[in-house]
């Protein structure tokens, strides 16, 4: 099975909060990342969290990490139509310099 | 400081031809990574290079694919005798240090390869 799993689709209304979830299997992950990909574009790093942290907040973004359940979430407050994109969760295993990505969650924000 | 530059943005090849994808890392970055994104899939790691060295090629198909990062010039991902299954978006990323230490990897806009 996949090392990193995400739900494929999320639809919200503008102004609501969005929560995108991710589960991973390898307990030796050191860093976990959230990337955003707009249509036809590359990946933009939104935020990352070190595995010894539970939470990280950066303006409208809140990352929660439950290491026991190997569960990562990204909360976007006051979601805007410009937030519509595909969001990828990725993990960085201890001792490796490469990232393992989930399949991505497509976020659709309607006015 | 320009970002990671990939060219071409779009590449069409007939089955059996060769595809060459180029990646110029950000200034000051000596670590380059290639990822492949198949339709409706996440990115899959292919190869990690530093100048003149392949550090990790565990994600590269054993045949037809090769990568280099010479002392001068861009990194090149080369696919020989392309097949339809090679159609994908190929992304390059670069970083100043190894990403295992939380260093951010910056991604290019990708090369979308279509094999007809």
Describe what this molecule looks like in 3D.
Chain A is mainly beta. Helices cover 0% and strands 59% of the residues of chain A. By secondary structure, chain B is mainly beta. Chain B has no helices and 11 strands. At the A-B interface, strand 4, strand 5, strand 9 and strand 10 of A face strand 4, strand 5 and strand 10 of B.
| Gap between N and C termini of chain A | 36 Å
Q: Structural class, from secondary structure content of chain A?
A: mainly beta
- Order of H and E elements of chain B: EEEEEEEEEEE
The counted number of beta strands of chain A is 11
List low-confidence stretches of chain B.
none
Q: Largest beta sheet of chain A, briefly? A: 6 strands, mixed
Give the radius of gyration of chain B. 13 Å
In the predicted model, the low-confidence regions of chain A spanning at least 5 consecutive residues are none
**Could you tell me the mean pLDDT of chain B?**
91
Structure summarized in a few sentences:
By secondary structure, chain A is mainly beta. Chain A has no helices and 11 strands.
List keywords for this structure.
heterodimer; A: 111 residues; mainly beta; B: mainly beta; four-stranded antiparallel beta sheet; 48% strand
Write the layout of secondary structure elements.
The complex is a heterodimer of chains A (about 110) and B (about 120).
Chain A: E1 4-6, E2 9-13, E3 18-24, E4 29-37, E5 43-50, E6 55-58, E7 61-66, E8 71-76, E9 85-93, E10 99-101, E11 105-110
Parallel strand pairs in A: 2-11
Antiparallel strand pairs in A: 1-3, 3-8, 4-5, 4-9, 6-7, 7-8, 9-10, 9-11
Chain B: E1 5-7, E2 10-13, E3 19-24, E4 31-37, E5 43-50, E6 53-56, E7 65-68, E8 75-79, E9 88-95, E10 106-107, E11 111-115
Parallel strand pairs in B: 2-11
Antiparallel strand pairs in B: 1-3, 3-8, 4-5, 4-9, 5-6, 7-8, 9-10, 9-11
